[in-house]
Write a structure and sequence with these properties.
The protein has 5 helices and no strands. With about 110 residues, it is mostly helical. Helix 1 (about 5-20) runs parallel beside helix 2, helix 2 crosses helix 4 (about 90-100) and helix 4 crosses helix 5 (about 105-114). The longest helix is centred in the middle third of the chain and has 39 residues, at about 30-70. The mean pLDDT is about 95.
Length: about 110
Amino acid sequence: MPRSVNSVASRAKRKKILKLAKGYFGRRKNVYTVAKNAVEKGMVYSYRDRKNKKRTFRALWIQRINAGARQYGMSYSQFMGRIKANNVELNRKVLADLAMNNPEAFKAVVDQVK
């Protein structure tokens, strides 16, 4: 009896990998075994960097708040300590946006916590 293979599913699996490798350079885009390795590695990076993105943005917000607070003679840690002590319910994302794009509103927040 001849061996039965599901070539429809096999082909679909290969097409799926090659579709994910679209835009890659050289053999990474059109040779299945090379593309499979590249796509797997890319998936690992994308998973890792979804976590790193959150860290990176938090660090950026802290830098912006620090720069804004230092204009009014406070360090970042003093400013955030006073924010918490005065029960101001603004997170770092909003405070960073105020410091960058709306300095007069940020000054009002600084004056409120001083």
